[in-house]
Design goal:
Largest sheet: 5 strands, antiparallel
Strand content: over 45%
Distance between the termini: 18 Å
Strand order of the largest sheet: 1-2-33-32-31
Number of helices: 1
Number of strands: 33
Helix content: under 10%
Length: about 350
C-alpha cells in the first residue's frame, strides 16, 4: 500500500485531480548522524518512500535518498510546491503535483529529468522498472505516458472522452491499465504496449473508481468506495466484493497477489485483504484509524495505537514493535521497517 502523508476520500478524489488541488507538504530535511538514524530537520509535512533497502524523502527543498547505514546516496536541491513520490524495488519517481517535470531513477544514485508535457496528476513506478504518468490539460482531459528505465517514451495514449486518473503497468511490462472517469462513471482501459490499439475496457456506471492495481500479470482489481471489482486482463469481470455499511478509504496492492483495503464508517475501522479471485484472505477490526499501512510482497506493516505490527497477507500477526511517537512506518526490501518519528527515522526489524 502506498504510504501517504495525507489522504483524499474517494468521493473527493476526482475533483481534486481535475482541479489539480495539491496537498501541501512542507519541508523535511534528513541528515545521518552515523548511527543509522536519520535526524529530521525543521518542517511538519513529509513525503517519503522505501526504495529497495533505502529511505527517500522529498520536501519543498528537494529530494534525499539514504542508505541503510545513513549514508546519503542521492541529493537533489530544487523548489517543489507539492512534492510526491512513487517507488517500486530500486526505482523511484519524484514530481510536483500540477508541475510538468518528472524525475525518474531506475537505480538509487541517478535521476533522469523528463518533461511530462502537461500538468502531472499522478505517476506510478512499476515492478518492471517502467513509469506510467498521467498529465491533464486545461479541460481536465489529458494523456498517459509510459517511460522506460532510461526515460525513453515507450507509449502514449491521449484521452478523448474520459478523464484519466491513474495508470499502472503490468508486472511483466507488457500491458498498461488506466483508471479513468467519464460522465457516466468509472472506467478501466487496458492497452497492449506492443500495439497501438486499445486492448480492452470496463465500465462501472454511476460509481467513481479511485484505485487500480495489477494482482498479477493476468488479473486487475479496481476499487470504488462501495466495492472491489476483479477483472481479467481482457476486462471481463471475475467477481466483486461489496463493503456493506462501510466504505473504502484507501487501497494498496502487495506484490504477492493480494489487495489490501482500509474500510471505515459509523465509527468503525477495519482492514480487508482479498486474493486475485476476490476471495477474502483476512479481515482485521481496528480500534482506531491507523497512522499508516504499507504492503510489500506478502507482508503488511500497520502503524496504530503506538505499535508497529507486522502481518501476513491473511492479516495474522507475525510480530510487533513499540512505536510510540512514530508517525509512519514503511516496509523495506529486506523485510525491515523504517519508522519515522517527529525528529528522526531509522530502519528496524520487527
Amino acid at each position: 500500500m502506498r504510504v501517504k502523508s495525507s489522504k483524499l476520500r474517494p468521493a473527493a478524489a476526482l475533483a481534486a485531480l481535475l482541479t489539480l488541488t495539491a496537498l501541501l507538504f512542507l519541508a523535511l530535511i534528513l541528515s545521518p548522524d552515523g548511527s543509522g538514524v536519520w535526524q529530521l530537520g525543521p518542517g511538519t509535512g513529509r513525503v517519503y518512500a522505501a526504495v529497495g533497502n533505502s529511505f527517500a524523502c522529498a520536501s519543498s527543498t528537494g529530494l534525499r535518498v539514504y542508505g541503510a547505514d545513513g549514508e546519503e546516496l542521492l541529493r537533489l536541491d530544487l523548489t517543489l510546491e507539492s512534492p510526491a513520490l512513487s517507488a517500486s524495488g530500486d526505482c523511484l519517481a519524484l514530481w510536483d503535483l500540477g508541475g510538468r517535470t518528472l524525475y525518474f531513477s531506475a537505480g538509487p544514485e541517478e535521476l533522469v529529468e523528463l518533461d511530462a508535457g502537461g500538468a502531472l496528476a499522478s505517476a506510478r513506478v512499476g515492478g518492471s522498472g517502467v513509469l506510467a504518468a498521467v498529465t491533464l490539460g486545461g479541460d481536465g482531459r489529458g494523456a498517459v505516458t509510459v517511460y522506460g528505465p532510461s526515460g525513453e517514451v515507450l507509449y502514449r495514449w491521449h484521452a478523448g472522452t474520459v478523464w484519466p486518473l491513474d495508470a499502472c503497468v503490468s508486472p511483466d511490462g507488457d500491458y498498461l491499465a488506466v483508471l479513468a472517469a467519464s460522465e457516466l462513471g468509472g472506467e478501466v482501459r487496458v492497452f497492449d504496449l506492443g500495439d497501438t490499439r486499445e486492448y480492452a475496457s470496463f465500465s462501472l456506471p454511476g460509481e467513481l473508481l479511485f484505485d487500480l492495481g495489477w494482482m498479477d500479470g493476468e488479473r486487475l482489481c479496481a476499487v470504488s468506495a462501495d466495492r472491489a471489482v476483479f477483472l481479467t486482463r481482457e476486462c471481463e469481470k471475475v467477481s466483486e466484493r461489496g463493503f456493506g455499511e462501510l466504505e473504502a478509504l484507501d487501497c494498496g496492492f502487495g506484490g504477492d497477489g493480494f489487495a489490501l483495503i482500509e474500510l471505515g464508517g459509523g465509527g468503525e475501522r477495519a482492514l480487508l485483504s482479498l486474493d486475485a479471485a476476490g476471495e477474502e484472505l483476512g479481515y482485521l477490526e481496528l480500534d482506531s484509524a491507523p497512522l499508516s499501512v504499507d504492503a510489500r510482497g506478502d507482508r503488511v506493516l500497520l502503524l496504530a495505537g503506538g505499535e508497529a505490527r507486522l502481518l501476513d497477507s491473511s492479516l495474522s500477526g507475525l510480530g510487533g514493535h513499540g512505536a510510540e511517537g512514530a508517525v509512519a512506518a514503511l516496509l523495506s526490501e529486506n523485510g525491515g521497517a523504517v519508522l519515522v518519528r517527529r525528529d528522526s527515522a531509522r530502519a528496524e526489524y520487527i
